Amino acid sequence: MSTLLIGRWSTDNATLSITASHQVDDEDQDAVDALTRPAFANGANWACTFPVDTHRHAVQRAYEEFARDDDAWLDDTVEHVEPVTP
């Protein structure tokens, strides 16, 4: 299983807000497409699948891989997980 996170970058790219989280079978692109298509139609502009089984671990990976190096904040609006920051 993998965790698909869907979200939106703020217009100034200072915040990545996670707005949805789904468990998907590894490499099931049809499921990813079915979940991201309506999300992007409703304003999402970011999505990524992480090979982890929990939302918490996926949020941490999203922070480490997409937000941390740009000094951006990650706001998890799904389960309100706070990423571990150095």
* Percent of residues in beta strands: 25-35%
Helix content: 25-40%
Rg on CA atoms, Å: 12 Å
* Number of discrete helical segments: 2
How many strand elements?
Answer: 4
Order of helices and strands: EEHEHE
- Overall outline: globular
Helix/sheet category: alpha+beta
The CA-CA distance between the termini, in Å, is 28 Å
Largest sheet: 4 strands, mixed
Mean pLDDT over the full residue set? 96
> Which regions have little confidence, pLDDT < 50, spanning 5+ residues?
none
Query: How would you write the strand order of the largest sheet?
Result: 3-1-2-4
Q: How are the secondary structure elements laid out?
A:
Blueprint lengths: L1 E8 L5 E10 L4 H13 L4 E5 L4 H13 L5 E4 L10
Parallel strand pairs: 2-4
Antiparallel strand pairs: 1-2, 1-3
